[in-house]
Structure formats: C-alpha cells, structure tokens
C-alpha cells in the first residue's frame, strides 16, 4: 500500500511539473473570425468575440510582455522576444467598425485573411441555418486597411473553401489563382496565405500548393516554421474565442 501511494505521488508530481513547466518563447497566432455579438440563432457562438473582450486581450498581452507583429515583420524575421500575430480569418466587415479602431487606439498591428473573389459579398461558404450570413470587407475597405500601416492582408482559398476537399492539382490551382487575383483584382500584394480550416496542412505539404517564389507567411492549424528560432516547432494557430482559458494557459507556459 505504501508503494502504491508513493507511485501515485510520483505520478502526481510529474504531472504537476509538466503542467507548470515553462517552455521556450514561441511565435503564436491568435486567430479570430467574427467580431461583435453573435446572432441569437447562431450555432457557431465560438466564432465570435466582442470588441471589449478583444481589447482586454490586447491589454493582457501587453502586461505580460507579448508584442503583436505584422506579417511583414514575420517575413523579415526581425522579431521581438515574445512575438504574437493577431489574425482575423474570413475578412468580415465588422472588423472595420469593431476591431480597427482598437488597433489604432493601441497602435497594434494585425492581419486579415480574405478570399479575394468574396470581397464585398458575404460568407456564402457557411450554412445560413447554422450561422446567419455576414457581410465581408469591400475592396475599398481592404485598401484603406492596407494603407493604414497597421493591418497586413493575406489571401484565403477562393470562395472561402477548404482546398483539401479537391484533388491536389485542382487545390493548388485554386490557391495560386487566389494569390494572383489578390494582387490583380485588389491591387494589393498578399503578405500571407491561410489554409484554414484545412486541418492536415503543415508547411511541408503547403509548399506543394503554393506558387514558386511565394515568400509570405503561411497559416495552418498545425505548428509551422518559427523564423525567429529557425525551428519547425511553432507558428501554432490558437483560437481565443473558442478556447479562451486554454489559449491563456498556452501563452502563460511560453512566457
């Protein structure tokens, strides 16, 4: 019995150590989608974050020494000690009214990823019975954000679809056309590409889908390349609106 208690105590001690053990500083992506208040009949409440909660997150990050960075900074690789990328996936129009003023207020950079063919339309890739459609940023608004110096812009798959649902050659063609349209249609150079919500992309497989010479930042749900350390361990995408406590714990461990 004594041995049993000793073994249980040892296991508990190891678990406690692993729980509280600090990890090396990492480059994390805090990914958001919709901003404001979720509609009453929304089945995707976890995709929404209020401006007030987002501002609290900005203050929480600053108080703990984290520094939000732009896509350009990531590409250059000149990063502060505790970098974090604030990414808004989908390009919802509410970003302009809810989030952009807060970025200006706190002089904080962020990134927006949108399918160029959907600018000025709505998120038709979602089932309106599960989530009422939301308007997306217009071309004029995207250009305003790009000129602000605070918001970097990246592309997403055409029509907002998961490119992995089609054969690799077709998916690669759609990804490359999206990047091409972003530059020609919007007149803006895309600084990155978001493969969300495709769950099995990593930097190795993503490289097969992107055009040769593309040097922008690639977002995948898996861990990617951390240009600051040269190790393929980080650029992990976290979703604060869906898992707020888990995200804070992860950031706390890598403090």
Key phrases:
single chain, 10 strands
Question: How does this model look, in words?
Answer:
This protein is of the alpha/beta class and 255 residues long. The chain has helices at 2-20, 51-63, 71-76, 94-98, 100-105, 139-148, 168-185, 203-209, 244-253; strands spanning 28-32, 34-35, 48-49, 67-68, 83-89, 110-114, 151-156, 192-194, 217-219, 236-238. The protein is globular, with a radius of gyration of 19 Å.
Helix-strand topology string: HEEEHEHEHHEHEHEHEEH
Mean pLDDT across all residues, rounded? 80
Task: Provide the low-confidence segments as ranges.
Answer: 10-20, 227-234
Helix/strand/pairing class, anyone? alpha/beta
By oligomeric state, this entry counts as: single chain
Q: Report the portion of residues in β strands.
A: 5-15%
Number of strands: 10
Instruction: Report the end-to-end length measured between terminal Cα atoms.
Output: 40 Å
Major beta sheet summary: 8 strands, parallel
Radius of gyration: 19 Å
Shape: globular
Helix content: 25-40%
Task: Please tally the helical runs, counting DSSP H or I stretches of 4 or more residues.
Answer: 9
């Amino acid at each position: 019995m004594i041995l049993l208690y000793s073994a249980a105590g040892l296991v508990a001690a190891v678990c406690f150590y692993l729980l509280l053990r600090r990890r090396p500083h990492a480059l994390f992506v805090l990914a958001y989608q919709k901003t404001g208040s979720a509609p009453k009949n929304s089945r995707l409440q976890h995709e929404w974050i209020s401006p007030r909660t987002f501002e609290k997150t900005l203050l929480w990050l600053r108080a703990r020494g984290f520094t939000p960075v732009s896509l350009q900074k990531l590409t250059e690789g000149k990063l502060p000690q505790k970098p974090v990328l604030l990414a808004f996936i989908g390009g919802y129009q509410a970003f302009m009214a809810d989030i952009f003023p807060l970025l200006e207020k706190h002089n904080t950079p962020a990134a927006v990823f949108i399918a160029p063919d959907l600018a000025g339309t709505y998120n038709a890739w979602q089932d309106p019975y599960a989530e009422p459609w939301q308007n997306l940023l217009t071309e004029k608004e995207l250009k305003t954000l790009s000129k602000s110096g605070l918001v970097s812009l990246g592309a997403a798959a055409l029509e907002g679809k998961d490119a992995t649902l089609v054969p690799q050659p077709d998916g690669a063609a759609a990804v490359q056309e999206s990047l091409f349209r972003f530059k020609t249609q919007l007149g803006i150079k895309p600084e990155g590409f978001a493969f969300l919500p495709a769950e099995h992309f990593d930097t190795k497989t993503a490289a097969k889908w992107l055009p040769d010479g593309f040097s922008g930042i690639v977002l995948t749900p898996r861990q990617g390349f951390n240009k600051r350390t040269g190790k393929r361990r980080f650029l992990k995408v976290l979703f604060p609106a869906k898992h707020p406590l888990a995200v804070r714990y992860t950031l706390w461990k890598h403090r």
